[in-house]
Specification:
218 residues, mainly alpha, MetI-like fold, 81% helix
């Protein structure tokens, strides 16, 4: 079988895996941003216990390998009565892992806002909520969007790891094609890499466009 025939036979299966990968990346990306924003706000909380818990969460998820987190979630948590299927485990751990990094992005973005602006907001009689809503967050979003998009690109790439617990994503389908049909591994894995590129490159271009549009005039 030549390269063209192998490609024609393999691409429909790889596209099915691509759909699963995009689904996992999209859902986990949404949850990661939500977790990250909450975590970033908590990291700047005036309440010590909230700050400590969010700091512990970030430290644990940034300080341990993603694969170990995945194995603990899928293989060990059932021992404590927490039963998750492969998709739930994959999406959950991706969201919490990326959320930890996004928390740090949000925290750094908030802390980059000059203290004089927050002092001015308080002098105008704004509540802490209004100060965050009207002064800090609009400027923080401007700062964090480029690195946030970069983190989402890393999340897409990290989806390849969850095939190790049995999710039939792009990588898993590629591996099954190589093992089950004897297809050329160089060709199959090149196609897998190409499909990942198709997902990540538009996000990369988006980050460049956003960064140019949001670049400060000075």
């Amino acid at each position: 079988m030549n390269i063209i025939e192998i490609s024609k036979n393999s691409i429909p299966f790889l596209i099915k895996g691509l759909v699963v990968t995009v689904y996992i990346a999209f859902i986990s990306g949404i949850f990661a941003v939500i977790i990250g924003v909450i975590g970033g706000l908590c990291r700047n909380s005036r309440i010590f216990i909230i700050r400590w818990i969010s700091s512990l969460y970030v430290t644990i998820f940034r300080g341990t390998p993603f694969l170990i987190q995945l194995y603990i979630t899928y293989f060990i948590l059932p021992s404590f009565g927490i039963m998750l299927n492969v998709l739930q485990a994959g999406i959950g751990i991706l969201a919490f892992n990326s959320g930890a990094y996004i928390s740090e992005i949000v925290r750094a973005g908030i802390e980059s806002i000059p203290k004089e602006q927050t002092d001015a907001a308080l002098s105008l009689g704004m509540t802490p909520f209004l100060k965050m809503k009207l002064i800090i967050m609009p400027q923080t979003i401007r700062v964090i969007i480029p690195p946030l998009v970069g983190q989402l690109i890393l999340l897409v790439k990290a989806t390849s790891v969850i095939s190790l617990i049995g999710v039939f994503d792009l990588v898993k389908v590629g591996r099954e094609l190589v093992i089950g049909t004897g297809a050329n591994p160089i060709l199959i894995y090149s196609l897998v890499a190409f499909f990942y590129f198709l997902i990540c490159y538009p996000l990369y271009c988006l980050s460049i466009v956003i960064e140019k549009k949001l670049k400060l005039p000075y």
